[in-house]
Specification:
about 230 residues; alpha/beta; Rossmann fold; eight-stranded mixed sheet
């Protein structure tokens, strides 16, 4: 089953209720790439809701990476997290996933919000961020950015399996190391996989310059059993 709604794109197996996964897209928003990923994950036995992350905030008109990064810095974390919570609540009552556990995954900006969701949202049992930012620049609006993901991990409510690229131009390896250290001290278990030869957006097979097939294939082979176990 596949369905479009105001919340986003839902893909669910045909047979019976299955564990739910909220998928948070990157800064460019809900695209066909994320509909495809949601359908792929649904084929693995999950009910997946790829949300429109901008349903409550609107979206600026930008086309360049630098503009996109500026937009992320201005975006209201509380409003995006409200949107994620709406997705979690929707899966909690939807016939395709009602009564089953729910996890969250996200990519780039979505990976950042997946981590924050695992620390702030109700009803999550797993978190799988892909190359999500963990540290904010100094001087951001504290109402829109109350705390960065690294600091939020003190309230981590579920396990984490994160995926990062060693050559990421946006997220330095030192930040990935800081995430690993923070997860050791967090109240829930966490693991980070770092791929040599891979950079930002290595899962995105619609961007030939960034896609890394070997890393993407390995990450998928780890993501599916992690979610199956954590959401069993």
């Amino acid at each position: 089953m596949q369905d479009e709604s105001a919340l986003g794109f839902l893909a669910a197996p045909d047979a019976g209720p299955s564990p739910g996964v909220v998928m948070i897209p990157d800064v460019w928003g809900l695209s066909d790439h994320y509909r495809d990923l949601a359908a792929r994950l649904s084929a693995e036995g999950f009910t997946v809701l790829a949300i429109d992350p901008y349903r409550k905030t609107g979206k600026d008109d930008f086309s360049e990476p630098a503009e996109a990064m500026g937009w992320i810095a201005r975006l209201s974390d509380p409003l995006v997290l409200e949107t994620v919570q709406d997705g979690i609540d929707h899966l909690g009552t939807h016939a395709a996933s009602a009564g089953r556990k729910i996890g969250v995954t996200g990519f780039c900006m979505g990976g950042q919000y997946a981590l924050l969701s695992a620390c702030a949202c109700r009803g999550l049992s797993a978190c799988a961020p892909f190359y999500g930012m963990v540290r904010y620049a100094e001087g951001l609006d504290s109402e829109k950015k109350p705390r960065q993901p690294l600091d939020a991990l003190e309230d981590l409510g579920c396990s984490v399996l994160g995926f990062y690229g060693e050559q990421d131009a946006i997220i330095p390896v030192s930040d990935v190391a800081a995430l690993r250290e923070a997860l050791i001290a967090a109240p829930q278990s966490g693991e980070v996989v770092l791929y040599p030869g891979a950079g930002h957006a290595f899962m995105n097979d619609t961007r030939e310059a960034l896609y890394r097939e070997a890393a993407a294939t390995d990450a998928w082979s780890k993501l599916v059993p992690y979610l199956a176990s954590a959401l069993a």
